[in-house]
């Protein structure tokens, strides 16, 4: 008895292969859980550290693990329009609890935010901090100027100590 096997044409074979691949591909992109940690770290590079923490901290166990990972470094930005209440909340809940993950802090504050500047205590416990910029923004009633960088701190987080540069601006030589 001869068995006759039906052979698939090229189109049929190709369609079946495409269908299998599509099903496999669809499964991967339908669940955010299947994305790699590295993918999320790439996304986090484009976001402010406070936004990352506020957005992802209570989603699920995996994101909590990502946020606590030593591989994640936060870039913290405070703009002159940040209210004192928001700053203090972020400072207590995010900055103080994640000192060892903060890579850079950029403060663009107006002169009326002295309370924020005086409450910011950056010491050696910020062991991964490599950049700190203090920029004066527009003060009350001064319009929307771009501001002047008045102090920049750069360092590697290790070594003998930080380097400070006072940056010249209008009226400062």
Could you please describe the fold and organization of this structure?
It is a single chain. By secondary structure, the chain is of the alpha/beta class. It has a domain at 73-165. The protein is 36% helix and 17% strand. It contains six helices and five strands; from the N terminus they run H-H-H-H-E-H-E-H-E-E-E. The protein has helices spanning 10-29, 37-44, 49-56, 61-68, 84-95, 114-119, and strands at 74-78, 102-109, 131-136, 148-154, 163-165. A five-stranded mixed sheet has the order 1-2-3-4-5. The protein is elongated, with a radius of gyration of 25 Å. 16% of the residues are buried.
Which terms would index this structure?
173 residues, alpha/beta, 5-stranded mixed beta sheet, elongated, disordered C terminus
Strand content: 15-25%
Q: What gross morphology would you assign?
A: elongated
- Computed CA radius of gyration, to the nearest angstrom: 25 Å
Query: Cα distance, first to last residue?
Result: 100 Å
Percent of residues in helical segments?
Answer: 25-40%
Q: Find the count of extended strands (DSSP E, 2+ residues).
A: 5
SS-based structural class?
alpha/beta
How many helices does DSSP assign? Answer: 6
Q: Order of helices and strands, N to C? A: HHHHEHEHEEE
Low-confidence stretches: 139-145, 159-166, 168-173
Mean pLDDT: 73
How would you name the oligomeric state of the polypeptide chains in this document? single chain
Describe the strand arrangement of the main beta sheet, using strand numbers: 1-2-3-4-5
**How is the biggest beta sheet arranged?**
5 strands, mixed
